[in-house]
Write a structure and sequence with these properties.
CATH topology of the largest domain: Arc Repressor Mutant, subunit A
CATH class of the largest domain: Mainly Alpha
Mean pLDDT: 90
Order of helices and strands: HHHHEEH
């Protein structure tokens, strides 16, 4: 279930217009007309983008008469953050191991160079 939810979220955010809408909603709720203002697209196209964001759980609109505010659902970002953080920790651990290997190689090379200098003198 989590994998399917993450797939929907990342697919929804793959579109630059939807990412921009999410960024604008991070400042505060907005009506569909307010969200549509900067885009050169029909209101119907804006509704389609919002439907994708709603289906992914990124935004919600309360039932009721128009205009209804579009609300960013921040909890979804917690799910994304947990997924990203898990892989970030794994990558950082790999880099730490690589740093240790490189340091050991560097120390080994330095020791060999010092030994050659000592025998040449």
């Amino acid at each position: 279930m989590v994998a399917a939810a993450l797939s929907r979220i990342f697919a929804a955010l793959a579109d630059p217009t939807r990412r921009d809408m999410v960024a604008r909603l991070s400042v505060g709720d907005a009506t569909v007309n307010q969200l549509a203002e900067p885009y050169e697209m029909t209101l119907q196209a804006v509704y389609k983008h919002l439907r994708v964001l709603e289906d992914a759980g990124l935004v919600s609109r309360p039932p009721g008469p128009q205009p209804r505010p579009v609300h960013l659902e921040a909890e979804v970002f917690d799910l994304m953050d947990k997924w990203i953080e898990r892989y970030r920790r794994q990558a950082e651990e790999r880099y730490r191991r690589l740093d240790a290997v490189l340091e050991a190689m560097n120390e080994s090379t330095s020791s060999e160079a010092d030994e050659r200098k000592g025998s040449a003198a």
